[in-house]
Every structure is written in C-alpha cells, then in structure tokens.
Amino acid sequence: MRTIGLTIGLTLAAALLASCSTGPVRRVSEPAARIQQLTVRANGSWTVEVRLENFSSIPMRFDRFDLQLKLGEESAGQLQAQPALSIGPESADVVKVDLTPSGTAKIAVADALAGGRSLAYSLKGDVVATPDETKQRTFAIERSSALSPAPGLPGVMR
Fold this sequence. Notes:
Layout: H1 2-20, E1 32-40, E2 46-54, E3 60-71, E4 74-81, E5 85-87, E6 91-99, H2 103-115, E7 119-131, E8 137-147, E9 156-157
Antiparallel strand pairs: 1-2, 1-9, 2-6, 3-4, 3-5, 3-7, 7-8
C-alpha cells in the first residue's frame, strides 16, 4: 500500500514539474494598423504616420504593408512601406509614409482642417509580418476610424 501511495505521489510531482517547464504561451494574434497622424506639407503632399500594433505574446517583425487609404468613399492613395521593424509583444510602433494624395482627398482634408471637422477614413490591405522564430505570414487588415484636426498644430490631423 505504501509503495502505491509513493508511486502516485511521485507521478503527481512529475506531472506538476512537467507543466511548469513549458513556459509562457506563445500566442500569435492578428496585428492591426491605423493612422496615428496625417500632416499636410507645404507642397500638398502628406506624411502619414501608420501605427502598427502587435497583439501577440511574442515579438513580430513587420516586413511590409500595402494599405489602400480612403477618406469617406474616395480613394486617397496607397500607403506602402517595407519597415523591417521588430515590435515587441503587445506593443506598437509608428512608420512614416510619404503620400501624394488624390485631388479629391486633398480637398477633403483641406475642408476638414478649415472647418475644424473630423474626417472618416478606412484602411484596407495587407500587412506582412514574421512572428518570432517562425515563418512569414500575411495578415488582412480592415480598419475604419476618423481623424480630427490637432489643436494648435496647423495642417495636422490625428
């Protein structure tokens, strides 16, 4: 009887130790992209700060993105970059992209800035990222939000 109890105790102890050795869960979640800031430059082009968000429990290297920017229903242009940027778990970073917007987009932003109004936007496309020590993956991105004029910063929407 005593050896059965000892065997059960050792088995439970070994199972407990084995469960501790696996370490933290390595979860890969879909990343997100959004516009953090849009700045209108003197020549009419824009600098768009794209915020890349890593919701995974492991670091990810963001290799490239290709996102269609729309203001309302009008195409403003394509946001493309190859940042090769490593972002830690559950963190974010910003990539600046220069954009020559469409004529209708220029007018829409100028009107929103002049009137102090918000402007709806959407992003749709792909983000290519490599989770830590695994193979590269392509994630589909769809985001809708709005930009508002930044108080005290002429030509800036956030």
